[in-house]
Amino acid sequence: METMITPSLLSADFANLQRDIDAVANADGLHIDVMDYDFVPNLTVGLPVVESIRKATDQFLDIHLMITDPDRWAPSYAEAGAESVTFHIEAAKAPIRLARELRRIGARAGMALNPATDIDGYRDILGEVDMVLIMTVEPGFGGQKFLDLCLPKITRTRELLGDRDIWLQVDGGVGPETIERCAEAGANVFVAGSAVFNADDPAAMVDLLRAEVAG
Ligand SMILES: O=C(CO)[C@H](O)[C@H](O)COP(=O)(O)O
C-alpha cells in the first residue's frame, strides 16, 4: 500500500497559506483541519477557505472534520472538490449513510477515532470507508506529544482491515521520532503539522519522513 505524507496546514502560517502550500509541493497531499469550537475547543477554517485552497493547488486535499454535525456539513467539502473527507465516528449520527453520500459525490470517505475510542465497536462498518484515521493526540491542537497508548489500536485496526484497500492514517505528534513506530504498527498515511512547518526546510522534512517510513 502506498505511503503518503500529508502536512497539516494547522501549523502553517494562515496569513501566508499559498507560500506554505507551495513549500510542501513534494508532499502527497494537504491535510486541512476543520474545527468548530464545539466538538473540539478550537476554531480553524471552514468551507470558504477550503474552496479557495482548492483553486490554489492541485494537491490531494484531505479534509479532517472535527465538528459536531458532520452529517450536515461533510458533503459540502466533497462538493468543493476535496479528494478525501473524514468525519469523527463519535460525532456522526448516521456514519454509513454519510460515508455512502461522500463516495456518491466522488470523495474518499474517512472515519476518525479519538484516542479513547475503541475500533472493535466499528469493525462492521469498515467496509463502508476508504480510510480510518487514528488520532494519536486528543484532537484540537497541533504540537502535542504523541500518545504511545494509541499504538496497539493502530496494530488492531490494520489487523481488522486485513488485505482490503483501506488506508490507515495517523494524526498527532507524528515526526521523525514517532513515524517509524506508526508505520511498523500498520499506518500508511501520515499527517505531520508542527514537524513539517516548524522545520527550517518543510520540503526536506517531508522527504525525511518518507525516508523514515521506507526504513
Ligand atoms: O488534527 C490535528 C489536531 O487535532 C492536527 O492535524 C495535528 O495535531 C497535527 O499537528 P501535529 O503534527 O503538530 O501534532
From TrEMBL:
Pathway(s) where this gene product acts: Carbohydrate degradation
Q: Name one GO molecular function term.
A: D-ribulose-phosphate 3-epimerase activity
The record's Gene Ontology cellular component field reads: cytoplasm
Q: Which cofactor does it need?
A: Fe(2+); Mn(2+); Co(2+); a divalent metal cation
BP GO terms, sorted:
pentose catabolic process; pentose-phosphate shunt
Catalyses: D-ribulose 5-phosphate = D-xylulose 5-phosphate
Which residues make up the binding site for substrate? Answer: 8, 64, 140-143, 171-173, 193-194
Q: What does this protein do?
A: Catalyzes the reversible epimerization of D-ribulose 5-phosphate to D-xylulose 5-phosphate.
- Entry annotated with the keyword Glycoprotein: no
Question: Which residues are involved in binding a divalent metal cation?
Answer: 31, 33, 64, 171
- Tell me the active site: 33 (proton acceptor), 171 (proton donor)
Q: Please state the Enzyme Commission number of this protein.
A: 5.1.3.1
Per the record's keyword annotation, is Metal-binding included, yes or no? yes
Q: What is the lineage of its organism?
A: Bacteria, Bacillati, Actinomycetota, Actinomycetes, Propionibacteriales
Q: What is this protein called?
A: Ribulose-phosphate 3-epimerase
The UniProt note on the cofactor reads as follows: Binds 1 divalent metal cation per subunit.
Q: So what family is this one in?
A: Belongs to the ribulose-phosphate 3-epimerase family.
A Pfam family of the record is Ribul_P_3_epim
SUPFAM superfamilies linked to this entry: Ribulose-phoshate binding barrel
| Gene3D superfamilies documented for this protein | Aldolase class I (3.20.20.70)
Q: Which UniProt keywords apply?
A: Carbohydrate metabolism, Cobalt, Isomerase, Manganese, Metal-binding, Zinc
